[in-house]
Amino acid sequence: MKLKYLQNQPQKVAFAAIFVVLLPNIFPNLFTPLSGAYPSLLSEWNAPRPKHLLLLQKALLHRISDQQQADLWSPLPKQGWKPCIHSTSVPSLPKKFQGYIQVFLDGGLNQQRMGICDAVAVAKIIGATLVIPYLEVNPVWQDSSSFADIFDIDHFINTLKDEVSIVKELPEKFSWSTREYYATGIRATRIKTAPVHAPADWYLENVIPILQSYGVAAISPFSHRLAFDNVPAEIQHLRCRVNFQALVFTPQITMLGEALISRLRGHSVETKSFDEQRDLTDKGENRKFVVLHLRFDKDMAAHSACSFGGGKAERLALAKYRQVIWQGRVLKSQFTDEELRGQGRCPLTPEEIGLLLVALGFSNSTRLYLASHKVYGGEARISTLRELFPLMEDKKSLTSPEERAVIEGKASLSAAVDYYVSMQSEIFISASPGNMHNALVAHRAYNNLKTIRPNMVLLGQLFVNTGMDWTEFQQAVQNGHKNRQGQLRLRKEKQSIYTYPAPDCMCQA
Fold first, then answer.
1. Where does it sit, as one GO cellular component term (predicted)?
2. Residue 420 phi/psi, 5° resolution?
3. First-to-last CA distance in the chain?
């Protein structure tokens, strides 16, 4: 009996091996490849099926009229406002500077951008010399890019030289004042108590005495540390001037951005030569394109506490991520997914943003540029959006590895390229609110460019209604976005000057 059992073992092993090899072919949906790797049966990376299948089927067959196309792509009419950020008084530097101030900025590119504007304003308020801000290593993307990697320092200093004293580094006698110095103990020259949205007077009362005693003061943290209200008009204008004039990207970023724009507008994306694409553009082969900031990374998905169709594996993975990053402190997790969607708190998935674009009138021949650092779920998650918009491009599809080498692994530089391209597109749309959304909404409003702001509450309610037909969905989307395509909104009390540039950065034409 034992001999017979042993004789059958090789045959059983062979059958088992064949079954393992054939299993992905028998059940392909359970073994969807992602970036060349096969996930496990319970992996969060298993591609979820389309969540809105009925709407998707209709969207794929939908045809857009010529009139709809003309209306959608038409530029914004003049709205009676123009850029207006010249100083209200004669620019002048103080005869004697109080000392040097340093700021340490965390967050992503656009949060750092706001911090830079506020740092210049604070230096002006207290009459100090600003040291080029130090950008902290991003904890999510692990990006160590410096100010000089992203922004043109010489342009920054020269643009502001008549109003604020700015230096690239501290004098030798203050060389001890470094990030490492402040990380190893409590220091008298470090200010940790700056309130969020502090009034200008707070800096006069709390920073100047330190400057008078030590000659240098380091403010950290420095995120959202200057109020938007009750600030002198000249300080508001200065913040606007920093944001819209002084902060210019480095040549390596602008060159890559121009190459992407040229290829998006050119006749064929197959041509990789910048010069050849520019020739095509000059000859009239000038296509319009829309930039979509997808903003659907794992950080965003986890913090929203929403469900995205990935089942139990996805829920467990996002819950674990929340615990590691925020120790589980995500208040929205107490609501159900349906409640969160009804409140407009769930970021739109690639599938949902695709349905929105079709309902708004974008055809499947639209040239779409995808501005995103990393999409949660990878290509498997984007596939539905690509099915709706087959001419979707991104940095990888439009450039060679050699061209991308300057930004490879650097999220801030990558975001800067996307920002640059976004400012040149006919239309910009962000799938969910956030710092990049707010920064571009403001910058494009300043230049009177069309920007579509998704109505998150409306869309959340529409997508919860799984029985809605296409005609009803399309009508609701169009009615809910008539006044969300770049119409200028005046800043209200406590709102950010970096989201609403009028009236502080603009004046009536």
1. membrane
2. -60, -45
3. 99
CB 131 within 8 A of CB 167: yes
254/248 Cα distance (integer angstroms): 9
Q: Does the pLDDT of residue 369 top 80, yes or no?
A: yes
Give yes or no for a contact between 277 and 259, defined as CB atoms under 8 angstroms apart: yes
At 383, list the tokens: 């596939």
**Helix/strand/coil (H/E/C) assignment for every residue in 107-143:** CCHHHHHHHHHHHHHHHHHHCCEEECCEECCCCCCCC
Reduced to 3 states, what is the DSSP secondary structure of residue 15?
helix
**pLDDT tens track for 105-145:** 988 899 999 999 999 999 999 999 999 999 998 766 678 89
Q: How far apart are CA 130 and CA 123, in angstroms?
A: 6
Q: Are strands 190-191 and 100-105 parallel, antiparallel or unpaired?
A: unpaired
Residue pair 450/71 in contact (Cβ under 8 Å)? The answer is: no
Burial class (CB within 10 angstroms; exposed 0-12, middle 13-18, buried 19+) of 497: buried
Q: Which conformational region is residue 215 in: left (phi greater than 0), alpha (psi within -120 to 50 degrees), or beta?
A: left
Instruction: Give the DSSP H/E element, type plus range, for residue 200.
Output: helix 200-206
The predicted pLDDT at position 35 comes to 36
Share the mean pLDDT of the chain: 86
DSSP one-letter code for 405 = T
Amino acid (one-letter) located at 483 = N
Rg (CA), the chain: 26
Residue 328: the pLDDT is: 67
Q: Tokens 């674009």 appear where?
A: 357
Q: Where are the beta strands (DSSP E) in 140-206?
A: 166-167, 190-191
8 Å CB contact between 371 and 291? yes
Q: At what angle do helices 435-446 and 109-126 cross, to 10 degrees?
A: 70
More confident residue, 36 or 308: 308
User: Nearest-5° angle of CA 356, CA 358, CA 364?
Assistant: 140
Contact 223, 118 (CB under 8 A): no
For 509, the token pair is 């034409």
* C-alpha angle 20-25-27 in degrees, rounded to nearest 5: 90
Question: Residues 58-79: pLDDT tens digits?
Answer: 999 998 888 888 899 999 999 9
Backbone conformation region of residue 307, classed left if phi is above 0, alpha if psi is from -120 to 50, else beta: beta
Please write the tens of the pLDDT for every residue from 24-48. 444 444 443 333 334 444 566 666 7
Its pTM stands at 0.86
> pLDDT of 260-301, one tens digit each?
999 999 844 444 444 444 444 444 457 999 999 998 888 888
